[in-house]
Design a protein that fits this description.
There is one protein chain. By secondary structure, the chain is mostly helical. The chain folds into 3 domains: 151 residues, no CATH class; 52 residues; 122 residues, CBS-domain. The chain is built from 14 helices and 5 strands. α1 runs antiparallel to α2 and α3 runs antiparallel to α4. The longest helix is centred in the first third of the chain and has 26 residues.
Length: 377
C-alpha cells in the first residue's frame, strides 16, 4: 500500500508524543476547573448526606474525578453524555462486582472486570472511560463493600453519577454551553427547494464523514454530525475572510415593503406586483418579524382573495442581525433553502432584507475581483 494512502499505517515520530491539544483559553480553564470543583463538591456533599459518614459504603467513588474531566472539559464528547455517564458507570460496576464474585485471584478478577466492562459498555452504547475505573474499584473492593452486592452499583455509584450529570446540566446552561450535547441535524430541502438539492449534493455530509471515519479506522471520538458542523463553520470562516469581513448590513435592501398579519392576500398581491418583489416580511406594530409571505404562496389563490395574511404566512422565518457575516447566509440560503432573509437591528426590529440575488451578486463580484487579481499577479 502506498505510504500516502489514507489507510496506510505510518511510522510514529517523536512529534506524536508532544501535546496534541490546542492551547486553552483562559475562560475554558476557569469554566472547566470551576465546574469540576462544583460538581465534585455537590456530589460529595449529597453522597455524604445520603449514605452517612460512618457506613461501610463510600459516599463518593474515585472514578467520579475522571467523569468530572469529561463532563466539564469535553462536554460535547459522546463519552460525556448522560447515558454514557450513568449507564456506563453503573453497568461497569455490576460487571466488576460479578468478576470479584466468580473470578480468583484478585489480579485476574480485576482484568476480567475491566475487559468485560468495556465490551458491555460498547454493546450498550454507553462507553465512558471512568466506567473502566468503576469496574476495577468494584473488582478489588474489600468484602465490606462487595458484600452489599448490587447496592454498591446503585448506591453510591449510581447516585454519584446522577448528581454529577445533574450538576453538569445546570452548570453548562448557566455558563452558556449546551449540555447534553445534541449533534446538529443536516438540513433537509423542502419540496419547494428541491432545486437546491443539486447544489448541496456535492458537499460533505454526515454519511460521508461516517464512511471516512470507518475507512481511517483511527477510533476518532467525535460524532459525524459534529464533524460536518465543524466543516461548515470552517468554510464560513474562510469565506468570511475572502469577503473581507463583509456584514449583512452592508448588502441588505433597506427599502423593504412589509405587510401586517391583518392585511389581506389581495393587498399582498398588489404590493408584489407594484414593487416587483417575490416576498414580503410580515411585521407587527413594533416592526418585529412574525412571518413572511412569498409569491409562490399565492399561486393557487384567486386574485381578489381577502384572506388575512396570518392564515397563510410562513412563521418559521430565518433572520440575521445586521452585523452577521455575509458568509453565514450561504448556509441559510443554499443548505436550508431560504430565499429571503430579514435583517434585524439590536432591538430585533426589521431594518432590511437580503434576497438570494443579493448574495449571488456579492459572490459573483468576489469571483470577478479574485480572477482579476490572479490575472494581474
Amino acid at each position: 500500500m502506498p505510504p500516502d494512502h489514507p489507510t496506510a499505517t505510518r511510522s510514529p515520530t517523536w512529534s506524536g508524543f508532544l501535546p496534541a491539544q490546542p492551547a486553552a483559553r483562559s475562560r475554558d480553564l476557569l469554566r472547566s476547573g470551576g465546574g469540576a470543583l462544583l460538581g465534585i463538591l455537590l456530589t460529595a456533599v449529597i453522597g455524604r448526606l445520603a449514605l452517612g459518614a460512618d457506613g461501610d459504603l463510600p459516599w463518593i467513588v474515585a472514578p467520579m474525578g475522571a467523569s468530572a474531566v469529561l463532563l466539564y472539559c469535553v462536554p460535547g464528547s459522546p463519552l460525556a453524555q448522560p447515558w454514557s455517564v450513568v449507564v456506563g458507570n453503573v453497568a461497569s460496576t455490576l460487571v466488576g462486582l460479578a468478576a470479584a464474585a466468580v473470578v480468583d485471584p484478585a489480579p485476574a478478577a480485576a482484568a476480567v472486570g475491566v475487559g468485560v466492562a468495556i465490551a458491555v459498555m460498547i454493546a450498550l452504547r454507553c462507553l465512558h472511560p471512568p466506567g473502566g475505573a468503576c469496574a476495577l474499584v468494584a473488582a478489588l473492593a474489600p468484602a465490606a463493600v462487595t458484600g452489599h452486592g448490587v447496592t454498591f452499583a446503585l448506591w453510591p455509584v449510581g447516585l454519584n453519577s446522577l448528581v454529577m450529570v445533574a450538576v453538569a446540566v445546570a452548570f453548562h446552561r448557566a455558563t452558556g454551553r449546551a449540555y447534553p450535547h445534541v449533534a446538529p441535524a443536516a438540513p433537509v430541502p423542502t419540496p419547494e427547494h428541491a432545486a437546491d438539492a443539486a447544489a448541496t449534493a456535492s458537499r460533505v455530509g454526515t454519511d460521508d464523514v461516517a464512511a471516512a471515519m470507518a475507512r481511517l479506522d483511527q477510533g476518532l471520538d467525535v460524532a459525524p454530525a459534529d464533524v460536518v458542523a465543524l466543516i461548515r463553520e470552517a468554510e464560513a470562516q474562510a469565506l468570511d475572510r475572502r469577503l473581507g469581513g463583509l456584514r449583512c448590513g452592508a448588502v441588505m435592501r433597506t427599502d423593504v415593503v412589509t405587510v401586517t398579519p391583518g392585511d389581506s392576500l389581495f393587498r399582498v398581491r398588489l404590493l408584489i406586483n407594484e414593487h416587483r418583489v417575490k416576498a414580503l416580511p410580515v411585521v407587527d406594530d413594533d416592526r418585529r418579524v412574525v412571518g413572511i409571505v412569498a409569491i409562490v404562496d399565492l399561486f393557487n389563490l384567486d386574485a381578489g382573495d381577502l384572506t388575512p395574511v396570518h392564515r397563510l404566512m410562513t412563521t418559521d422565518v430565518a433572520t440575521v442581525h445586521q452585523d452577521t457575516p455575509v458568509a453565514d447566509l450561504v448556509g441559510l440560503m443554499v443548505e436550508r433553502g431560504h430565499r429571503h432573509v430579514p435583517v434585524l437591528d439590536d432591538d430585533d426590529r426589521l431594518v432590511g432584507l437580503v434576497a438570494r440575488a443579493d448574495l449571488i451578486g456579492v459572490l459573483h463580484r468576489l469571483l470577478i475581483e479574485g480572477g482579476a487579481a490572479t490575472a494581474g499577479g
